[in-house]
Each structure stands twice: as structure tokens, then as C-alpha cells.
């Protein structure tokens, strides 16, 4: 019996579409394409969880800027 812990499998960050980002942050897709960094993948341009968080921050800043 081996008491050493097994090596963890490397985790892969899930990828999201621009539609997923739009649902999360409330910005229209053209604004997301212009304002939020994205990642090139074999499937095309995709977004990571960190980039969705970035989109949410950008959306909050835009909404805040629009208030009197």
C-alpha cells in the first residue's frame, strides 16, 4: 500500500462564449468584444472566468458612470 498522495490532475479553466459573458455582466456583445480581454483557443475567441470577472467590473463602472 502506498501512503503517498496521488498527484492531482491538472485543472483546466472552463471557457465561456461571448453570450455567456453577456449574461453574466449585462453588457451587449459588441461592447464586450471591444472592452474585455479574450483568449484565442482552437475553438476561436473564448473567455475565462477571470475575464468574466473583468467584464462584470467594467459593466459596473459603465453603469456607475451613467448615474447623475
Characterization of the model:
This protein has 68 residues and is mostly helical. It has one domain. It contains three helices and two strands; from the N terminus they run ααββα. It has helices at residues 18-25, 29-35, 49-65; strands at residues 39-41, 44-46. The chain has a two-stranded antiparallel sheet with strand order 1-2. Strand 1 and strand 2 (44-46) form a beta hairpin. The chain is elongated and about 45 Å long. The N and C termini lie far apart (68 Å). The model is unreliable at 7-11 (pLDDT under 50).
Q: What distinguishing features does this structure have?
A:
mainly alpha; 68 residues; two-stranded antiparallel sheet; elongated
In short:
The chain is mainly alpha-helical and 68 residues long. The protein has one domain (18-65). It is 47% helix and 9% strand.
Oligomer: single chain
Mean pLDDT, as a whole number? 87
Fraction of helical residues: 40-55%
Radius of gyration: 17 Å
| Number of helices in the DSSP assignment | 3
Question: What are the secondary-structure elements, in order, as H or E?
Answer: HHEEH
Largest sheet: 2 strands, antiparallel
Counting structural domains, the number is 1
Strand order of the largest sheet: 1-2
Strand content: 5-15%
Unreliable stretches, pLDDT < 50, 5 or more residues? 7-11
Structural class: mainly alpha
Amino acid at each position: 500500500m502506498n501512503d503517498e498522495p496521488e498527484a492531482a490532475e491538472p485543472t483546466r479553466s472552463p471557457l465561456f462564449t461571448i453570450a455567456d459573458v453577456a449574461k453574466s455582466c449585462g453588457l451587449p456583445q459588441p461592447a464586450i468584444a471591444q472592452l474585455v480581454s479574450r483568449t484565442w483557443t482552437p475553438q476561436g475567441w473564448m473567455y475565462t472566468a477571470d475575464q468574466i470577472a473583468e467584464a462584470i467590473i467594467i459593466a459596473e463602472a459603465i453603469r456607475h458612470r451613467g448615474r447623475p
